[in-house]
Predict the 3D structure of the following.
Amino acid sequence: MERTLILIKPDGVERQLIGPIITRFEQRGLKLVGLKLIQVSEELAREHYAIHADKPFFKPLIEYIISSPVVAMVWAGPQAVQAARNTIGSTKPVEATAGSIRGDFGMMVGRNLVHGSDSPENAVTEIALWFKESELVSYDRAIDKWILE
Ligand code: DAT
Ligand code: MG
């Protein structure tokens, strides 16, 4: 079982898309193991996006992510990172496949609704940044025998 960090960014929260976005991951068959609504500090935002610190879009990216609350989640499943990235769609919503979250709900790269970890290694680092291990739960889902083989 792999775990991935998913964020519903401020535009997703403000546009009242928390429910529809969570539904996409639930329908996919991923399992929710952590969830919280938080007002992100600039410090956390900068650490989360540290890899982009030298990019011209870094400042607006930080301002965007701290502009309203964010829903932080951990979803688990086989190849959860790749499954979630495909459900989210390409970084630029106009280029994202219809049926993906960004492809169905987004228009601009700076308002692309959702973050998802891009590799299993980065997922481990990001989950540790956003969640204490005690905030994550482990449970058996009865439905899993119809999702996992
Ligand atoms: P992703 O969120 O698909 O993993 P990323 O890690 O390359 O994309 O970039 C992080 C965020 O930074 C992305 O969701 C939106 C913003 N971003 C990326 N490339 C950008 C660009 N060329 N112009 C403006 N914002 C950009
Ligand atoms: Mg990324």
The mean pLDDT is 98. Residues 73 and 91 are 19 Å apart (CA to CA). The longest strand covers residues 31-38.
